[in-house]
Amino acid sequence: MIFERWFLVIFSIVCLLVLIKFIPKNKKRDAWILFLFLQVITWPAGLIAVEMGWIEYPTQLLPDANNYNKTSFSFEFFFFPIVAIMFSLYFPKRKYWYLVLLYYVGVSGFFTMFEVVLERTTTLVTYHEWKWYWTFITVIISLFINDLFYRWCKKGLIVVREHEN
């Protein structure tokens, strides 16, 4: 368990460095919108999956957190939202359907493979009734909803900024 906690600490630091390095200064507000809205999706979805006994997160970064919330704080509230930020901020400008499909499949596939490797080699994630393809599907759906909300907000922010001038 010590290795897993160190892994979470180091991975959290790497994620913070990614945020600092790859979020342009003019996109910080957009990053916050993406970060917070994805948590609105992942919190109830994660609670359902854990409470139904489909998936378990035996090792937490904060050990007492398991007494209050059995979802993974690190995955659901930090790592996945960072993936969503990068996903939407670097979404392909050209909207050819096959590029968009490849982008969704690539990002979701990478996240799913990462989780499967962690499930097989650590005590960070344990699948019970859960399967890798459920992660893949829910990641695609979550990214789609989050990006849709982001684009809707962006239109609203543009209108508000125009009225401010």
Number of domains: 1
Through-space gap between termini: 55 Å
Sheet with most strands: strand arrangement: 1-2
Shape estimate:
globular
Radius of gyration: 17 Å
What series of H and E elements makes up the topology? HHEHHEH
Strand content: under 5%
Helix content: over 70%
* Average pLDDT figure: 89
InterPro entries: CBO0543-like
Keywords: Membrane, Transmembrane, Transmembrane helix
Index terms:
single chain; 165 residues; two-stranded antiparallel ribbon; 73% helix
Structure description:
The chain is mostly helical and 165 residues long. It has one domain. The chain contains five helices and two strands, in the order ααβααβα. Strands 1-2 form a two-stranded antiparallel sheet. It is globular, with a radius of gyration of 17 Å.
In short:
This protein has 165 residues and is an all-alpha fold. Helix content is 73%, strand content 2%.
Write the layout of secondary structure elements.
Layout: H1 2-22, H2 28-51, E1 55-56, H3 73-89, H4 97-121, E2 126-127, H5 132-164
Antiparallel strand pairs: 1-2
